[in-house]
Fold Ribonuclease N.
Amino acid sequence: MLKAVATRARKAGFLCVLGVAFVLSPAMGHARNAPSTGGAIPPIALAELPPQGRDTYALIREGGPFPYDKDGTVFGNRERLLPAHKRGYYREYTVRTPGSRNRGARRIVCGGKPRVPDACYYTSDHYASFREIVE
């Protein structure tokens, strides 16, 4: 009998913990995906970008050609750190990282029309944070 009571208590405790986790998970997920800047994306001057970032930005304004096949592809904004827009609004471009064997973590993401985007954003940490490029 004592064994049965202990088994029921463990199950009840597990279900209680599971229920709390289930209830809190949407709030925790939202907080993780929300910008840490209170919704404002901090600026970065074009002159402050690394030289490779300025080169990529110039290629974007010229319409290419781009060195990577993925450059110019749709950026889905799954992190929801950039202002919300319809799918296809944002495009991503690689910022070369010296010494990297792959594309690295640095990108510029632009929204709007190619060559004349509404806004461009720089990330040095593979979409974990963004800064709006200002000229």
Q: What stands out?
A: Residues 14-37 have pLDDT under 50 and may be disordered. The radius of gyration is 22 Å.
